[in-house]
Amino acid sequence: MSVYSHIPIKEWALEDRPREKLRYHGMETLSDAELMAILLGTGTRELSAIDLAHNILEEVGGLHRLSQTGVEQLTRIKGIGPAKAISLVAAFELGRRKTLEEISECRQSLKRAQIEQEYQQTERLRVSSSEAVAAYLTPKIGYLQQEVCYVLFLNRANEVKSEKQMFIGGISATVMDVRLIFREAVHQLASAIIVAHNHPSGNLTPSRADVEITQKLVRAGQVFDIVMLDHIIVSPKGFYSFADENQI
Fold it and tell me: What class does CATH assign to 9-117?
């Protein structure tokens, strides 16, 4: 029992009173018995509300068992009348309902996520031309002020399974790692890929490095049996397709 046994809580030091502790220091600073004491309101002539709460927890075997105890069973405990028993049962019922509500919201969120995923799967972008790809990618990377490499991973029907920004460079160049691109393609079980990058300068003419990396990508695709469909350069001024220019 506490040093305040037999003394009404209202006569305790202010910092030790459960209600004041909760108000000024937060509910996490209170023990289970102190929280229960707030619900009980008062103790008995022999016990403070906190000591009575300790007795209840010991009698029933802890909080979990207490949450399953009804009013009639609680009133059999010395010092617990119908009013105190009802307060405890009501508190646990609120907690149970809150948990059920959270579970319901979680299920609804999962269901919405599943629906969105199914929608995305049914609404996959089908690659039909370089113009379609450029129209899709220009809003994503065409207006950026630094070069980035973006890769589309396609299935056998030329539908985009997934997409990923792979590399970020500077204002005038970005370094593409062929190994990392095809490692991701293998991971995605892609049948084909389209690589794209932007030219912040607006100049759509491929650099020598652009041509060389395209050739490396084509050769790597042949090794992995993953088709390198196109390498597209985009900018606000338009786009350049290596496939359209017969460079793939």
Answer: mainly alpha
